[in-house]
Amino acid sequence: MDRARKRELRALNDKAWDGEKDLFPVGKTLDSSLKKNTAFIKRLRTAITAATLSTFLQEIRTLSLHKYLSEIISACYEGLCRLKSPGEIEAGVEIVSALHQRFGPSEFTEYIAWLLGKGMATPDKSILKALAPEAREKEEKERITRQRALLRVVTELWLVGVVRTLDDVSRPDDATKGAAGKVAELKTRTNKGAGADPFPLEVLKDLLGYDREHANLPLLVIFVKSFSWDILGVKPTGADGRKTVEEDGTTEGNEDTNDEKDESGMSSGSDQPFTEPEMRERFRSVLKKYFDDVKGHITRDQKSIQSQARRNAEAYVKSGEVFEDRQANYEKQVKAQERLVSNAQVIADAIGAEMPDLKDSDDSLGASNGSIGLVKTGDYLRSMGDGAGIWEDEDERRFYENLVDLKGKVPPILLEDGKKKKTDTDEQVGKKIDPAEAAETAKSADSADDQSTAIANRTIGAQVDALLARLPELTNKDVVDQTAIDFLLSQL
Q: Where in the sequence does UniProt note compositional bias of the Basic and acidic residues kind (predicted)?
């Protein structure tokens, strides 16, 4: 919907709130046919699209509709919950505006606003806790999907002046039957008067105020991408023109070619935000408070991911593998963190805030742990595919993985020492030894051992000194391998 049309609708809808009549022209004789009126209600519930908009507006002009208002309110709410694309939302806003202008706030708008508020309310925590984990996750996904579109509808209706505040709603008698589904009750106000927060701001406060897990962050991203200019007065980052936000949060650029510019080249009044500076600051304040909490969440999760990555990497170095469940859990955490950071960046751009410095956090954590076995966890994760993996380069990988065959370089007697000792021990089993002879043999052996130990200590010390002196000269793989073999042959 172009901005000029939005402002035109806003002027008409404001007049309807002021009590003016005949804002939406209707025929002199209205059709009260049951078939046509019920058909209108049925299509209102399921078929609001850009293609059917003209038909709906014509029927609002020609059908009586008045005695079916309760059904119309319920069907209209259900139809609005089904909207997804920008074209569908635009058609819904036009239809609701037409009904608002024809029937006025007291007969239509206050009731549809109550249902919209109820649809955007957060669910009762006690009800969610009573559900099984799978059912709770499913319920939350369905709520996010439903509220993603409904938040845009509510905000667009506020921008064109159909809904105002929670002071301006009334609970319908029977329009709620079967319409709202499993959502919480709307917390309506009792003190009518000036100074109340606008409808979408109250909705955001309810969604974000107690969202410690930041499950509603995707909803806020949709809001910011859709209304950063109209409400916050901030042009989308890197945008030459305005952007259309799709259901999944992606954007498509659409330059405003209809907005006139004055002689200085600045946009005319038709391209100005719909909110005053004071109102923009109220929205920005709510977003900033929530964003500060999101930053803490990001930092905590980043530390947890880095700690898990270190444990996985060390396990891989020690055992050569990481359990699949541990790796899958790590990858799930990384993907969730990436989504969280990406969404937070959108909010940061809109309010001019700084993102947490995750790189410094990673460096400090790496520097604080100098233990053996710490490897580059990012490289480890990539090692599951092609490339050197956890090693710095291919030469380092070959150094640790391509082991020397010791059978061709070391005397077999050294490799079979364990078997020989075992055989010698077995031969002694079963022989009868005289106690006196054994005691004499032990004394002579101890004396000989003492003498040989003193000589061996001096010899081993000299060999160790020589080995240590050679360490700075070990500059390539072949020299290292030869030194290791010499060490084995020296039997230190």
A: 419-435
